[in-house]
Amino acid sequence: MVIEQIYTGCLAQGAYYIESEGESVIIDPLREVQPYLDKAEKQGSKIKYILETHFHADFVSGHVELSKKTNAPIVFGPTAKPSFEAIIATDGQVLEVGKVKIKVLHTPGHTMESSCFLLIDENGKDYALFSGDTLFIGDVGRPDLAQKSDLTIYDLAGYLFDSLRNKVMTLANDVLVYPAHGAGSACGKNMSKETFDTLGNQKMFNYALRANMSREEFIKEVTDGLELVPPPYYFPQNVMMNKSGAKDLSLVLKDAQPLSVQAFEAAANETGALIIDTRKADIFKEGFIPNSINIGISGDFAPWVGTLVTDIKQPLLLVVEDDNLNEAITRLSRVGYDNVIGYLEDGFQSWVEAGKEIDIIQSISAEDFALKFKESEGKLMVKDVRKPTEYMAEHIEEAMNIPLANLSKNMVEFSKSEPNYIHCAGGYRSMIACSILKARGFDNIVDVAGGFAQIAKTDIPKTDFVCQSKMK
């Protein structure tokens, strides 16, 4: 028996390859399916089933394309209603793969079709639980991501309580837990950086699995704070793509065309395409195409595109270094942004050599920022674009929290006359914010390089209590 977790850090997502006696299954595959095909071929195994724990919201799955290429059936848990042919398993149904068995456990709560897959080894022992978004390491799935229905998030949280108590916590403590996500995913609130654990450890340390927890306490704790971190706009659109099946990734990669400077400029003007510059923040700030938005490929690129670009069909133009081109398009496709109409041939340097207008972002060090802060007696316009939880933990006195995800709704909070000093934790999100503000006509934007990590080393006054009037 072989179990392999195929973890993709930029999405904090875990897919799984399980093999026994020349037969294999893939659980929750990403959109690019070739790695799974290559793995099966290398191992000399035949993919027998493609298992989906639920209709994913945070990424586009490759289940339909993988099924087409292997003839392996797609398996969902009870109540799933895809628009393509699939096995809709019953609760407790057992699938045989070589000498092992996989038992379907219907665990509604995160969504109503959510299911876990229990791997039973050659000796008939419960060995591992592939828990999807039902149970994470240190957390459980959010109950506010399901498609709209008559059920409230409190109803779904109640279902999740029952699923965990009746289907998951009854399993032996030595059963391994392999979730669909780890820290960084928006599908939970407080996931661990660990990507697997024993169920026994989770019963001890996961707040949602406390033995003495009442149903009411569970619902309150699981739903608490969800309003502070709303799900990204692309989530429901990804669900629909996963229900209907997405376009083959190979076709998406072919759609993006190399464009000369003149053609790139014409495309931007004629199509209303959004220009996304994927270079690193410290390079972008030194010069960029006016009105372009910096979302660096080196960070949480696709999730931030999905959070900030509200229309999944928005035409996109990319400024990207050649060796990152396929990576950028692939990452965008993972979250359903397939409409990349072109990219600047030969990158930003070709724009400079053509003598085209460029813009810059003013940036200062944390030390220089601290001096200005003192000279102003704390009266600078400081905007902290970190998450509310980060701000609550510690922040600069007098700084206003405007999370990057909420930036567009809070433009009125930025001054048109005084300098706006923007920071995040390390500089990635603040440069995104600065580029958006620049594109919206704010020319008095100053990025604090290194973010709060560097600011914390200065003697600027800080506080760790929440000042509600300074959060947006």
Describe this structure in words.
Helix 3 (153-168) packs across helix 5. The protein is globular, with a radius of gyration of 24 Å. The protein contains 16 helices and 24 strands. The strands form 5 sheets. It has a 6-stranded mixed beta sheet with strand order 1-2-3-4-5-6, with helices on one face. A 6-stranded mixed beta sheet has the order 7-8-9-10-11-12. The protein has a 5-stranded parallel beta sheet with strand order 13-17-16-14-15. The model has no long low-confidence stretch (mean pLDDT 93). It has helices at 34-43, 63-70, 153-168, 199-205, 215-223, 234-244, 249-255, 261-271, 281-284, 301-308, 325-334, 347-353, 366-375, 388-393, 428-439, 451-455; strands spanning 2-8, 13-20, 23-27, 46-51, 74-76, 87-88, 94-97, 100-106, 115-120, 126-132, 176-179, 197-198, 257-259, 274-277, 293-294, 316-319, 340-344, 362-364, 381-384, 395-396, 400-401, 420-423, 445-448, 462-463. Strand 16 (316-319), helix 11 and strand 17 (340-344) form a beta-alpha-beta unit. The protein is an alpha/beta fold and 472 residues long. It comes from Arcicella aurantiaca. This is Glyoxylase-like metal-dependent hydrolase (Beta-lactamase superfamily II). Residues 269-360, 384-464 form the Rhodanese domain.
